[in-house]
Design goal:
Elements lengths: L6 E5 L4 H12 L3 E8 L6 H12 L4 E6 L23 H4 L11 H15 L4 E3 L15 H13 L2
């Protein structure tokens, strides 16, 4: 008799936060289906890292979804005319919305992750939000994630 692991979707950027989420999902007994996004970002290094992390962790599947958030502009991560600032400490980041904020990125990513979850009969979605980001990124605040979870649960 084989016991199957419940499926879960893990948003995997290739960075430390999402890699930690993937490890937590696997540790909690989920069959992780990872999803990454080519959203018009100026680099693809993290996508390469995400693919390797997914392979190494023996994820059930990994996909890269193409969307183009750069067509809206407004972020140093998607617009080559805006310099990406370098900060040495959290104090240098400040309290304003940083120029690296991609408008509604987590909203879009989570919406697509929920759609993917429906197709694999998963009810769990993992995302890693950086504790330093939520002070400046509107869609990294704990209140945002709680509200999105409430909304997503209405769709089940």
């Amino acid at each position: 008799m084989t016991q199957t692991r419940p499926p879960a979707v893990v948003l995997l950027s290739g960075g430390l936060d999402s890699a930690t989420c993937l490890a937590i999902a696997r540790d909690r007994g989920f069959d992780a289906h990872t999803i990454s996004f080519r959203y018009g970002q100026r680099h693809e290094y993290e996508l390469d890292r995400a693919e390797k992390l997914s392979e190494r962790s023996k994820a059930a599947s990994h996909r890269i979804v193409d969307i183009n958030l750069s067509q809206f502009g407004g972020s140093a991560l998607t617009d080559s005319l805006i310099n990406v600032p370098k900060s040495d400490s959290a104090d240098e980041i400040g309290d304003e919305i940083p120029v690296t904020y991609v408008p509604a990125r987590n909203t879009v990513f989570l919406s697509l992750a929920v759609a993917f979850a429906e197709t694999i009969d998963a009810v769990d979605v993992f995302i890693g939000g950086n504790a330093l980001d939520y002070s400046g990124y509107p869609d990294c605040r704990p209140e945002f994630f709680a509200a999105f979870q409430t909304m997503a649960n209405l769709a089940i």
